[in-house]
Amino acid sequence: MSTKFSLLSRLAVAASLATALGIGTAHAQEKTPDDPRLFAPGQLTVATSDPVFPPWMMDNDPSNGEGFESAFVYALAEKMGFAPEDVVWVRETFDQAIAPGAKDYDFGIQQISVTEDRAQIATFSDVYYQPQKAVVAMPGSAVEEATSFADLREVRWGVMIGTTDLDYVEDIIGVDEPAVYNDQVGLFQALQGNQIDAVATELPTALYLTAVQVPDATIAAILPPDENDYGHGLIFEQGNDLVEWVNEAIAELKSESVIDALVAQYLIADPDLPVITE
Predict the structure, then answer these.
(1) How distant, in Å, are the alpha carbons of 150, 201, 214, 224 from that of 168?
(2) Nearest residue to 134 (alpha-carbon basis) of 217, 232, 214, 205
(3) Environment class of residue 92 by beta-carbon count within 10 Å: exposed (0-12), middle (13-18) or buried (19+)?
(4) CA–CA distance, 49 with 52 (Å, rounded to integer)
(5) What is the pLDDT of residue 12?
(6) CA distances for 34 relative to 27, 190, 240, angstroms
(7) Whole-angstrom Cα distance, residue 52 to residue 137?
(8) What H or E segment, with its residue span, contains residue 271?
(9) Could you tell me the maximum CA-CA distance found in the chain, to the nearest angstrom?
(10) Second CATH level (architecture) for the domain 133-223
(11) Where in the chain is the domain with CATH 3.40.190.10?
(12) How far is CA 233 from the centre of its chain?
């Protein structure tokens, strides 16, 4: 009996030691490319939209490192110890990105604004960019003469579903029943077709819209920030522990002015654009 008990005790001790060693190894690998908390250890799996647009990403190719968000992800990955070839991209819609539940990637990036409501169903990184809002219109639109929110409420607005632009138009400007579109293509076609007078969007998107997608359109005005929109953050599955590691890397990029340099390269607008504040 004692021999059997001794054998069982030794096996229990061995199992405990093996478990402890396994835990110790896992902890040692944390915050390295082999971190077991990664969706696929050895690589950084990042989700974005399909398609992607300048100035956020170029040529509908998030892997080329061009455009503000693509360049930002690769700078972030380097800080975290990943080689460029270890960054793997997956695609999803905006609605999928902000939906609750499991995510088959480490984090997503597609100009997702951090809000209190969204933070109830997903985990966000620290804000990496705070955009201004812009009003885009076709030449001759009534919105070109607007100087106040009261004037803005008199024109026909278009916005994309599920975005903070929709919240801004309804809650900040005070527009009743703006036209809502499922994607940017439909929104921009409505603008060109004179179905709407104005589009509210983030300034960098407005710059690309007026330069490439609808070159006849202009930025009619800049709008004040939305206090309920804290800026762009990376989105994670709710409770994902990786966010601490990612936030450390974001802080380093900020302290080294890497993000400021990317903003200057891709996102700067005309400082003389008119501003409507109330």
Answers:
(1) 14, 9, 22, 10
(2) 205
(3) middle
(4) 6
(5) 57
(6) 11, 48, 16
(7) 22
(8) none
(9) 96
(10) 3-Layer(aba) Sandwich (3.40)
(11) 44-130+230-266, 133-223
(12) 5
Q: Give SS3 for 44.
A: strand
Among residues 120, 155, 118, the alpha carbon closest in space to that of 136 is found at: 155
Using DSSP's 3-state secondary structure scheme, residue 258 falls into helix
Q: 44-130+230-266 — its CATH code?
A: 3.40.190.10
Residue type, 84: P
Residue 167 structure tokens? 């919240």
Q: How far apart, in Å, do the first and last CA atoms of the chain sit? A: 86
User: CA–CA separation, 188 vs 196, rounded Å?
Assistant: 9
pLDDT at res. 278: 79
The dihedrals phi and psi of 230, each to the nearest 5 degrees, come to -80, -5
Kindly give the confidence (pLDDT) of every residue in the chain, 278 residues in length, as a single tens digit, with 9 standing for 90 and above.
Answer: 455 546 556 655 555 555 545 555 556 689 999 999 999 999 999 999 999 988 899 999 999 999 999 999 999 999 999 999 999 999 999 899 999 999 999 999 999 989 899 999 999 999 999 888 899 999 999 898 899 999 999 999 999 888 889 999 999 999 999 999 988 889 889 999 999 999 998 888 888 888 887 889 999 999 987 777 888 999 999 999 999 999 999 999 999 999 999 998 998 766 678 888 87
278: its two tokens: 């109330």
Q: Are 43 and 87 in contact (CB under 8 A)?
A: yes
The position carrying tokens 């800049």 is: 222
Candidates 228, 249, 232; CA nearest to 97 is: 232
